[in-house]
Design a protein that fits this description.
By secondary structure, this protein is an alpha/beta fold. The protein folds into 4 domains: about 25-115 and about 205-290, Rossmann fold (3-Layer(aba) Sandwich), CATH 3.40.50.300; about 130-195; about 300-395 and about 560-685, 3-Layer(aba) Sandwich (Rossmann fold); about 395-555, PCRA, domain 4 (Orthogonal Bundle). Helices cover about 50% and strands about 15% of the residues. The chain contains 32 helices and 18 strands. Strands 11, 12, 13, 14, 15, 16, 17 and 18 form an 8-stranded mixed sheet that branches. A 6-stranded parallel sheet has the order 3-2-6-7-1-8. A two-stranded parallel ribbon has the order 4-5. Helix 11 links the parallel strand 6 (about 230) and strand 7 (about 255-260). It starts with about 30 loop residues before the first helix and ends with a helix. The structure holds a DNA duplex (15 and 10 nucleotides).
DNA sequence: GACTAACGTTTTTTT
DNA sequence: AACGTTAGTC
């Protein structure tokens, strides 16, 4: 196991220990970790503070299951992201056996639900071939409805409605009973629209899977029989719905293990309930509770500062995180004149530190609250030729060319899928515009069939002009021809897609809309990536359906992203969870940024505090936090107040300084150097 | 139906 | 400052 900074290592110690061939060693674990690994029966709650070797403990525990003879097919591990899932599987594969690791189910809640629903959604009145709507699909549908139902002039925002819909679904509130009447009617219309398109959104996956298990005892018993041992990682970020799903999934004798840290619960905005972890006993009887409190990641100075902050939160599971790495240099808090200087400071520091310690770029990470904050920092890094990697800025799978390509693949699989059909019906433009699309959709609803069927229906075609009719017929023929090639396996689907995109001149159209060469290149790469991914999936024997499902749920684009790319890491606080870096810069500790403006309004400052806590605990050796007096906002200078959190930090291991002090000193040094250089020249000359 | 120009709006975090 | 949306034109 190589030690690559920025990758979630099982723990700081995992990387320096030789890997145990054919198993793991109890000796390499501390007492609490051993206890966790050995406790395989009944409900178990592992409270794992930051940097306490959580992942290692969980992987060892599951390895232990395999070693004591539990069949891999009976093991389910639920992770927060797909990336975490594949990493966990890989690690267990390395500890026990690759074959067994492959046979286990390791995935996210959402992937698990797709698995359940592909098998049984017909029992709930959906067709088995349902499509999964991503965030942008949802927004598209909702925007249309807002216009159609006359909310546009009242500036009703589709995103806002969807946020409420999501809340309602997660809380189990009926959409028709939502608080705001107009929102409620939009929500109902939205749900009807999804239904008509035989589509589900992310929340529906959970809602329907839970319903399926709850209402159908045979299905429930079947899956309880399959998944005899269930582990849920990052449990602090699960919501009420996921809890209910888990309860359906796990029956007596409740061999369920949940792992998490309530202090790192940072997804409340999407319904995460720390109550799940705080009141775990309420859901599963008499759990064994194990506390992991030995931190192997950070210096005492860093950990002390983090602890002093998180103590301010109420309603926690009290933990006393102890550092195993003593001392360490003090945490620095640096006041900046503006965000420009903040970026310069970071770039210069990275440059200097790297040179001084002969360190790789990967040792450094810059953490920020919102994505927009990265821009200035990127510029400063680019100016100094410092390589950097941005994590999860905009999702790969949310890019237009990717979504379009995937939509075409979906049509090759099933032309009757409305969601992808409507997406690419006129992309690139082929003379089937909005009004025709509306007409076709209405017609499809009348005959109670898919939009595709409407497009092929003589009754519909006779309603449109000859020109439009020709366009439609060309389109349907093109799709059918491609589908036939895929079905007959004349050539692999990725080749069919390539050929198809060439035929419809997709790329040239895309490029026409690009402003820069680099943008063109990005688009090309996007399509290339889809083709590669598709090819890879097919080679692994996956079906088109499976490929599409995986793509729909994949949050993290190229999973080996961090590994492949080199450079300093730029990342949001949210995305940084689970990672660690020797040297961390945490920027923007200002009121309105961290805590975010919205959290102040909504009264969720506790979560912002946890967010800062997560950020601080990412640092292994060095930590610098910054705040600005002035920041650019919408192209205008706005003055900022330092974050209230700053005063909550214990100053025992904290040095408060300013940009001028640091950079001024450096400048002096330089001037001094110049002076002596000049003197030398003078004397020599 | 497609393209362009001007306008207004935006910025939390993500499965 | 940058993006998406809308209105107006061809």
């Amino acid at each position: 196991m190589s030690s690559v900074p920025g990758l979630p290592t099982a723990s700081g110690t995992a990387s320096i220990r030789p890997r145990m061939a054919g198993g793991f060693s109890f000796d390499s674990l501390n007492k609490a970790q051993r206890d966790a690994v050995a406790s395989l029966d009944g409900p178990v709650l592992i409270l794992a503070g930051a940097g306490t070797g959580k992942t290692r403990t969980v992987t060892c525990r599951i390895s232990n299951m395999l070693q004591v003879g539990i069949a891999p097919e009976n093991i389910l591990a639920v992770t927060f992201t797909n990336k975490a899932a594949s990493e966990m599987r890989e690690r267990i594969g390395g500890m026990v056996s690759k074959k067994k690791a492959e046979a286990m189910t390791v995935c996210t809640f959402h992937s698990l639900c797709v698995r359940l629903l592909r098998g049984g959604i017909h029992k709930l009145g959906y067709k088995k071939s349902f499509s999964i709507c991503s965030g942008s699909d949802q927004v598209g549908i909702m925007k249309q409805l807002v216009v159609r139902m006359g909310g546009a002039d009242e500036k009703v925002k589709a995103e806002a409605v969807l946020a409420e819909v999501s809340k309602a679904k997660n809380r189990g509130v009926e959409l028709k009973d939502m608080e705001d009447d107009f929102f409620s009617s939009l929500a109902v219309a939205y749900q009807n629209e999804l239904r008509a398109q035989n589509a589900v959104d992310f929340d529906d996956l959970l809602v329907l899977a839970e319903q399926l298990l709850r209402e159908h005892a045979d299905v429930r018993d079947y899956f309880r029989g399959v998944y005899k041992r269930v582990t849920v990682d990052e449990f602090q970020d699960t919501n009420g719905l996921q809890m209910r799903l888990l309860q359906q999934l796990v029956g007596p004798p409740y061999h369920v293990c949940v792992v998490g840290d309530d202090d790192q619960s940072i997804y409340g905005f999407r319904g995460a309930e720390s109550a799940n972890i705080l009141e775990f006993e309420r859901f599963f009887p008499n759990p064994k509770i194990i506390l992991l409190e030995e931190n192997y990641r950070s210096t005492h100075a860093i950990l002390h500062t983090a602890n002093s902050l998180i103590r301010r939160n109420l309603g926690r599971r009290e933990k006393s995180l102890k550092s195993t790495i003593l001392g360490g240099e003090p945490v620095r808090l640096v006041g900046m004149p503006g965000d420009e200087e903040e970026a310069v400071f970071i770039a210069e520091e990275i440059l200097a530190d790297k040179a001084r310690g002969n360190l790789p770029w990967e040792h450094f990470a810059v953490l920020f609250r919102t994505n927009k904050q990265s821009r200035k920092i990127e510029e400063a890094l680019r100016e100094r030729k410092i390589p950097y990697r941005m994590v999860g800025a905009q999702s790969f799978y949310d890019r237009k060319e990717v979504k379009d390509s995937l939509a075409y693949v979906a049509l090759f699989d099933d032309p009757e899928a409305d969601v992808p059909l409507l997406r690419v019906l006129n992309a690139p433009p082929r003379g089937i515009g909005q009004s025709t699309a509306m007409l076709a959709t209405d017609y499809s609803r009348e005959i109670g069939a898919s939009v595709w069927r409407a497009l092929c229906d003589e009754g519909f075609l006779s309603q449109v002009s000859t020109k439009v009719r020709n366009s439609i017929e060309t389109f349907t023929t093109q799709i059918l021809t491609a589908k036939m090639k895929v079905d007959a396996k004349v050539m692999p689907a990725n080749h069919v897609l390539k050929e198809f995109l060439d035929e419809i001149e997709y790329l040239p159209w895309l490029e026409r809309g690009c402003k820069s060469e680099s943008e063109k290149q990005q688009r090309q790469e996007g399509i290339g990536e889809v083709l590669t991914e598709l090819s890879k999936a097919l080679q692994r024997g996956k079906s088109l359906r499976k490929f599409l499902d995986d793509s729909a749920l994949a949050s993290d684009r190229e999973d080996d992203d961090l590994e492949k790319k080199s450079g300093a890491t730029l990342i949001t606080l949210h995305a940084s969870k689970g990672l660690e870096f020797p040297s961390v810069f945490l920027v923007g500790l200002e009121e309105g940024v961290l805590p975010h403006q919205r959290s102040v309004v909504e009264g969720t400052k506790d979560e912002e505090r946890r967010l800062l806590y997560v950020g601080i605990t990412r640092a292994q050796q060095r930590l610098a936090m910054t705040y600005c007096t002035v920041r650019m906002k919408w192209g205008q200078e706005v003055s900022c107040q330092p974050s209230g959190f700053i005063l909550e930090l214990d100053d025992e291991h904290l040095i408060h300084t300013t940009y001028d002090e640091i950079m001024g000193a450096e400048a002096d040094e330089e001037e001094l150097g110049n002076f002596f250089g000049g003197l030398k020249n003078f004397l020599d000359g």
